[in-house]
Design goal:
- α3 packs antiparallel against α13.
- A hairpin with a 5-residue loop joins β9 and β10.
- This protein has a ten-stranded antiparallel beta sheet with strand order 16-15-14-13-22-21-20-19-18-17. A seven-stranded mixed beta sheet has the order 1-3-2-12-11-10-9, sandwiched between helices. It has a three-stranded antiparallel beta sheet with strand order 4-6-5.
- The longest helix is centred in the middle third of the chain and has 15 residues.
- By secondary structure, the chain is an alpha+beta fold.
- It starts with 8 loop residues before the first helix and ends with a strand.
- The protein is globular.
Length: 534
């Protein structure tokens, strides 16, 4: 996966009754934090002056023993034991960087190094930075600009003095004043043909700035404002002004029907690229001599009470980008540390398991700002536990039954579908190697989405799932079997979500037709019929 990708969420919405409906439910609505009122301000200690690194991880992170960076390898090895033995949360990856060097980098199968992972609401912090960059470059005047001024051609419902007074800063701080039950609003906006209009039309429940209410609609408006002012969507703007300087070359960010990237969620990056973003903030927006994010914006975004400009703030002076399931980017200036974790544990970002890991296990391992005496036995134990955690459980292959006669007859035939809520255009089954099948799929092209709607699912026929790029390059765990002479069944699991969807497709071949029946996490999702292409 070496190409930046972007796809339109309309594609997924069109699949709402089908196999992909589970993806929508897995990624959104993002469960809101438990707090609905403005967090109480807490004292924040002065931010330490960033230590200038001896290298920049533009071309990749360098590794070090924990002791070289003042951390205890034995305590980190004990952390690995804790992660392996606990049952309270599901972690996919953990990356600890101190003084710019990787001291722990572990992945739990089927997630693996180099895979993209959904950030859920941690996406919001990226949207915040893009607003700061746009202000710095003159596309936006400042955070005091009124929101409705960016949409002069739209007629807005529920218009009153409060809505007219709402500013960019009100959106950034979750104090817009919108009447917003986040779970309900997120569910409803997904069904809207125009997400921006839906958000602008929300009724006001309070004066802007008066109280803190977590609301995804706020952040989607920020993404729309980026597109209105810069002429490109948030992903394209990020590619030029944020991702390119950091050498983030692979990203997926879903968008609404009008092409506005979803500012509140649906960004996917690798853990190493998530860490680059955290490191950028650790260095006050500076990257290898270039001020990528204005230092004043970094300070403004990470200052205040418990919530800044779409960042979660801690009394210690640390802060985090945080999303459902445990997608977290921690920046700890007093420790010169960045911690990245991904997982599938549900919940929001207040008192989550990530905070327990950081405060109870990771910070205590940082014993000194200076190097500690070498501990080769501790390092060996840590490395052994990391390798053991990342080891894939070997599934014993089963003998591949002889293919039914029909399997060869339908091989390579493209079956096409009329317009359907699934979004399928065509599919074709083939057998590239013994014990494997390949389903080539074409989905409906949506709007101006530049992504090639064609993809492949590689399927193990020996009961051993294959891991390969699938839809839009998502790593996919797939296997298949002929359950009857004319019925082929696929089991599909896309990797890298905070709640991985389990998809089942059943293809029944009759004459020149195929019937496709879909299930999502065990729930029937619908049926459609295709015919052999002429």
């Amino acid at each position: 996966m070496n190409k930046t990708r972007h796809t339109n969420l309309v594609t997924i919405l069109m699949l709402a009754l089908s196999v992909f409906a589970v993806i929508l439910s897995a990624c959104s609505p993002i469960p809101p934090p438990t707090a609905t009122q403005a967090p109480e301000p807490t004292p924040v200690p002065p931010t330490p002056t960033p230590i200038q690194p001896d290298y920049w991880p533009t071309d990749g992170w360098r590794s070090s023993t924990p002791e070289e960076q003042g951390m205890d390898s034995e305590k980190l090895a004990a952390l690995m034991d804790y992660l392996q033995n606990q049952n309270s949360f599901d972690i996919h990856s953990l990356l600890i960087i101190r003084n710019g060097y990787v001291v722990t980098d572990v992945y739990f199968p089927p997630f693996a190094e180099g895979y993209l992972h959904g950030l859920a609401s941690a996406t919001k912090s990226f949207t915040s930075s893009l607003i700061g960059i746009a202000i710095d470059k003159g596309y936006i005047e400042g955070v005091e600009q009124r929101v409705l001024d960016f949409f002069p051609e739209r007629t807005v419902s529920n218009l009153d003095a409060n809505k007219e007074a709402m500013t960019l800063e009100d959106l950034l701080t979750m104090r817009s004043g919108f009447e917003c039950n986040n779970a309900d609003i997120t569910s409803r906006i997904l069904k809207s043909p125009d997400w921006v209009q839906f958000a602008l039309d929300l009724p006001m429940g309070a004066e802007p700035g008066a109280r803190w209410v977590y609301c995804n609609a706020n952040v989607h408006l920020l993404s729309a404002i980026l597109q209105e002012t810069t002429g490109v969507n948030a992903l394209a703007f990020a590619q030029e002004h944020l991702f390119e300087p950091l050498s983030v070359s692979d990203a997926i960010w879903l968008s609404d029907p009008q092409g506005n990237n979803i500012g509140s969620a649906y960004l996917r990056l690798t853990p190493h690229d998530m860490a680059r973003y955290g490191y950028l903030f650790l260095k006050e927006g500076l990257w290898d001599g270039q001020q990528v994010v204005p230092a004043a914006w970094v300070k403004a975004a990470t200052s205040g009470g418990n919530y800044g400009y779409l960042w979660w703030l801690k009394p210690s002076g640390s802060y985090s980008a945080c999303g459902a399931g445990g997608q977290e980017i921690w920046v700890l200036p007093d420790q010169d540390m960045v911690v990245v974790m991904t997982g599938a544990s549900g919940g929001g970002c207040t008192g989550a398991w990530g905070e327990r890991l950081v405060h109870n296990h990771i910070i205590p391992a940082a014993e000194s700002t200076a190097p500690l005496p070498p501990n080769p036995n501790g390092v060996a134990a840590l490395e052994s536990k990391i390798q053991a955690a990342a080891a894939t459980v070997q599934v014993q292959p089963e003998p591949v039954p002889p293919l039914p006669e029909l399997a060869q007859q339908v091989a390579g035939i493209s079956y096409v579908f009329d317009d359907n809520p699934f979004g399928f255009v065509s599919l074709a089954l083939s057998y590239p190697a013994h014990g494997e099948a390949l389903l080539e799929v074409t989905m409906m092209q949506v709007g101006t989405d530049p992504v090639d709607p064609q993809f492949e699912w590689l399927l193990g026929l020996d009961n051993v799932p294959r891991i390969a790029p699938g839809r839009f390059g998502y790593p996919t765990l797939t296997k298949g079997s002929w359950e009857k002479d004319n019925v082929f069944v696929l089991q599909i699991e896309e990797i890298g979500y905070w709640e991985w969807p389990k998809i089942r497709l059943s293809l029944t071949f009759e004459g020149d037709q195929v019937s496709l029946e879909a299930w999502a996490n065990g729930t029937p999702a619908g049926t459609l019929t295709g015919r052999a292409a002429e």
